[in-house]
Every structure is written in structure tokens, then in C-alpha cells.
Amino acid sequence: MDGGLANPVPVSLCRAMGADIVIAVNLNGDILGKHLRRDAAKDEKPDRVREDDLISRIAGQMKSTLNARKKDLMSRIFGVDRKEPGLYEVLASSINIMQDRITRSRMAGDPPEVILAPRMSQLGLMEFDKANTAIAEGRLEVERMRFALEQLFER
Predict the structure, then answer these.
(1) Which domain does 123 fall in, by range?
(2) Tens of pLDDT, residues 94-152
(3) Directed axis angle between helix 87-109 and helix 54-78, to 10°?
(4) Do residues 34 and 123 touch, judged by C-beta distance below 8 A?
(5) Which residue pairs, CB below 8 angstroms and at least 24 apart, start in 56-61?
(6) Structural domain contains residue 148
(7) pTM to 2 decimal places
(8) What is the count of structural domains for the chain?
């Protein structure tokens, strides 16, 4: 695992490098309870097969069977079209819980002067295309914590 899990908010590293004031950014602040479910993909209509073409009918049945099995497998892995979570959601939630606990434990031992905790739970693990959303939330968090930041620098 990388530093994002081993030391998600490296306050101690900043202090070791000589920082007098540490402003931590905790991206795990609202990660617990996050649901990664996605809307199920719309079913595609099967190709029309001519009734008199035996090979086309067999191919159509095989395609239909494979699509059904693929959909079932994807449902088991990602939890799509199911009430219970899929394998991916259980694994991601387990890592999130572990990361949250490590973050809390490390910051309790060496607390920063200010903690910024942008609300990022609406973003998925691999949604790099939503950087603008993340940046906007970061700006909102700085605005929410403006008073604490101003007090920090008035010392």
C-alpha cells in the first residue's frame, strides 16, 4: 500500500521536515457510509434473428445466455441490480474504514494546527474526470474554515 493508506495525513512528516505550522487536508473525513452504487446499465435489445436461420438463432441464444451470465457476474462484483453490496463495494468500504481509523489514530498522536476536511464522498475512487468538482469542494472547505485559518496566521 502507498502512503495514502500507511500515513494518509502526514503531519509527523511535515514536522520532521521543520514545519512550524501544519494545515492538514483530510480527504477521508466523510468517506464512511459512502455508497458506490451506480445505476444499472440499460439493457440492450437483442439483435433480431430471422426465424428460418438456424445458425443465427443459435448464435442469438448463445449471445443472450452469455449476456445474462455477464450481467450476473457484474452484479456479484459491483452490486449492480442487487440489494446487497457487491464485492467491489465491500472491498472499497473495508479499505475506507481502515484508512479512516489510521487517519484518526495518527492525527490524535500528532494533531495539526488546522484540519481541512472537504466533503468528497460524492466522488468515486477512479473518477479522475471530476477534478473540477474536487477543486470546487476544496475551495468551499477553505471558506468554511476561513476563521480558523485567519486566527492561525494572526499569532
Answers:
(1) 3-37+83-153
(2) 888 888 888 888 889 889 999 999 998 888 777 889 999 999 999 999 999 999 999 98
(3) 20
(4) no
(5) none
(6) yes
(7) 0.60
(8) 1
